[in-house]
């Protein structure tokens, strides 16, 4: 089968080549991939650490060509959206059926392929906050793929949404169009306390955002774009003065159970145009170098999609 293979002799670290087709385990379906979306973490970290010849990729949409032998998961011919720790950048992918969601017939595979990491991370982070109807929710790093999903989903959930971005001029109007009630340059510009935070930045922004939480408020640490540690000043973790029972929650999407249901729910809403996948780059997988360069240089806000012929 054709695949994007790790090749460090090339500037992008990838080349189109031939790889053995995967042989599914009994609890896995074989999926013909038609589109994949890229994530900053996989091109920034996974790509630099992977052995030569590896097929990487987390997100993919396609069609089941062989159902799982154990009878779990969708039947052959079903359009699906899939999540995995590798294997998405290839024509064929073996996927655990727990990490497969079904997609509506006729839905755009490129749009659906943006769902797994970005959409599911945002959805599960908001679930962790608890009921958000009528609550104030801050999303830091709101211009990335996960942030844009978090803004839209928080608005759908009835929250008062505050989006934080490093460039108000470039992204303020877009974030408001996606559902943000307020757009700020950082947590220190938030005027009133918040009930929950979906943090995609880490570092000092996480520290500042934690200080905004009301009693029993929760911050979910989803992303770490700042590449900095968190240093809390003395007294920041005191529980007096209305600060009782505030939480910082760590997050790892692969550790979440029941992801197939989430992927199906998100794919349905993408197909119905209730959610906007926010695709800001799209092209064939022979142009992957361009997309990866834009991601690494932080020139791309939203999702990059590769169509696989």
What is the element layout, followed by pairings?
Elements: E1 2-6, E2 14-18, E3 28-38, H1 40-49, E4 59-66, E5 79-83, E6 92-96, E7 100-102, H2 109-112, H3 115-129, E8 136-139, H4 145-156, E9 160-164, H5 168-178, E10 182-184, E11 194-199, H6 203-210, E12 213-221, E13 247-250, H7 259-271, E14 279-284, H8 288-296, E15 303-307
Helix pairs in contact: 3-4, 3-7
Mean model confidence by pLDDT: 94
Beginning-to-end CA distance, first to last residue: 12 Å
Residue share in β-strands: 25-35%
Q: How do the SSEs run, as a string of H and E?
A: EEEHEEEEHHEHEHEEHEEHEHE
CA-based shape: globular
Tell me the helix content: 25-40%
Write down the Rg.
Answer: 20 Å
Beta strand count: 15
The helix/strand class is alpha/beta
Q: How many helical elements? A: 8
Q: What summary fits the major beta sheet? A: 7 strands, mixed
Uncertain segments are none
Structure commentary:
The chain has 309 residues and is an alpha/beta fold. Helix content is 27%, strand content 27%. It contains 8 helices and 15 strands. The strands form 3 sheets. Strands 3, 4, 5, 6, 7, 14 and 15 form a 7-stranded mixed beta sheet that branches. A 6-stranded parallel beta sheet has the order 10-9-8-11-12-13, with helices on both faces. Strands 1-2 form a two-stranded antiparallel sheet. Helix 3 crosses helix 4 and helix 3 crosses helix 7. The longest helix is centred in the middle third of the chain and has 15 residues. The mean pLDDT is 94.
């Amino acid at each position: 089968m054709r695949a994007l293979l790790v090749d460090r002799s090339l500037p992008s670290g990838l080349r189109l080549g031939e790889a053995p087709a995967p042989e599914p385990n009994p609890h896995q379906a074989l999926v013909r991939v038609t589109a994949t979306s890229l994530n900053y973490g996989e091109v920034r970290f996974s790509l630099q650490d992977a052995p030569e010849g590896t097929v990487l990729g987390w997100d993919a949409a396609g069609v089941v060509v062989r159902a799982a032998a154990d009878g779990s998961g969708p039947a052959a011919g079903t359009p699906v959206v899939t999540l995995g720790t590798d294997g998405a950048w290839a024509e064929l992918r073996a996927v655990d059926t727990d990490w497969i969601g079904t997609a509506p017939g006729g839905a755009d595979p490129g749009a659906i392929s943006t769902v797994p990491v970005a959409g599911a991370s945002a959805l599960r982070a908001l679930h962790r906050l608890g009921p958000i109807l009528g609550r104030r929710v801050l999303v830091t790093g709101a211009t990335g793929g996960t942030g844009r999903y978090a803004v839209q989903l928080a608005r759908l959930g009835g929250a008062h949404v505050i989006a934080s971005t490093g460039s108000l001029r470039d992204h303020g109007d877009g974030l408001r169009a996606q559902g943000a009630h307020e757009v700020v340059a950082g947590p220190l510009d938030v005027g009133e306390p918040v009930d929950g935070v979906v943090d995609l930045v880490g570092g000092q922004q996480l520290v500042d955002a934690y200080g905004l939480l009301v009693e029993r408020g929760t911050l979910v640490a989803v992303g770490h774009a700042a590449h900095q540690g968190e240093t809390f000043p003395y007294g920041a973790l005191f529980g007096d003065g209305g600060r009782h029972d505030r939480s910082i929650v760590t997050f790892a999407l692969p550790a979440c159970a029941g992801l197939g249901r989430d992927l199906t729910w998100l794919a349905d809403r993408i197909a119905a145009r209730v959610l906007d996948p926010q695709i800001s780059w799209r092209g064939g997988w022979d142009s992957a170098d361009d997309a990866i360069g834009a991601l690494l240089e932080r020139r791309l806000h939203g999702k990059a999609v590769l169509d696989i012929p």
